[in-house]
C-alpha cells in the first residue's frame, strides 16, 4: 500500500488525503519519522484535517517529541471543534491528558 501511495505522490499528486494516507501507512509500518513528514504536509494542505492532526501527534509522540505532539493535539482539537468533529476532539483530549499526566515521561 505504501509503495502505491508513494508512486501517486511521485506522479505529481500531492494533497491532504494522499499525505494522510501515506502518513498512516508509514505509522503502521513503524516508520514514525516518515509518517510525521507526510502528516505535517497533510495539515499544511488542510489545517482543518483533524484526523491528520491526531495521527501527527501520535507520530511525534513515538519520536519522543512530546512538546510537538502536545501542540499538534491542541491544534487538532481546535480544528475538530470548528468543524463539529466531536469524536476526534474527544480522542485528542484523551491523548493530551495522558501525555500531560505522564509529565512527558513515556517510561
What would your notes on this structure say?
This protein is mainly α and 107 residues long. It has one domain: Serine Threonine Protein Phosphatase 5, Tetratricopeptide repeat, CATH 1.25.40.10. It is 78% helix and 0% strand. It contains six helices and no strands. It has helices at 2-10, 16-28, 32-45, 50-62, 66-82, 86-102. The longest helix is centred in the last third of the chain and has 17 residues, at 66-82. It is globular and about 40 Å long. The mean pLDDT is 95.
Number of domains: 1
Helix share, percent: over 70%
The CATH first-level class comes to Mainly Alpha
Task: Give the integer mean of the pLDDT values.
Answer: 95
The CATH architecture is: Alpha Horseshoe
Subunit arrangement of the protein: single chain
Give the overall shape. globular
Strand count: 0
| Rg calculated over all Cα atoms | 14 Å
* N/C terminus separation: 32 Å
CATH T-level topology: Serine Threonine Protein Phosphatase 5, Tetratricopeptide repeat
Individual helix count: 6
Assigned CATH superfamily: Tetratricopeptide repeat domain
Structural class: mainly alpha
Q: Give the topology string: H per helix, E per strand.
A: HHHHHH
Unreliable stretches: none
- Biggest sheet, open or closed, and with what strands and sense? none
Amino acid at each position: 500500500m505504501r509503495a502505491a501511495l508513494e508512486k501517486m505522490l511521485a506522479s505529481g499528486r500531492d494533497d491532504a488525503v494522499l499525505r494522510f494516507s501515506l502518513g498512516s501507512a508509514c505509522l503502521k509500518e513503524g516508520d514514525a519519522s516518515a509518517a510525521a513528514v507526510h502528516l505535517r504536509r497533510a495539515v499544511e494542505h488542510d489545517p482543518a484535517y483533524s484526523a491528520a492532526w491526531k495521527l501527527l501527534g501520535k507520530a511525534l509522540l513515538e519520536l519522543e517529541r512530546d512538546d510537538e505532539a502536545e501542540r499538534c493535539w491542541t491544534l487538532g482539537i481546535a480544528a475538530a471543534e470548528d468543524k463539529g468533529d466531536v469524536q476526534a476532539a474527544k480522542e485528542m483530549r484523551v491523548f493530551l491528558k495522558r501525555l500531560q499526566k505522564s509529565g512527558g515521561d513515556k517510561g
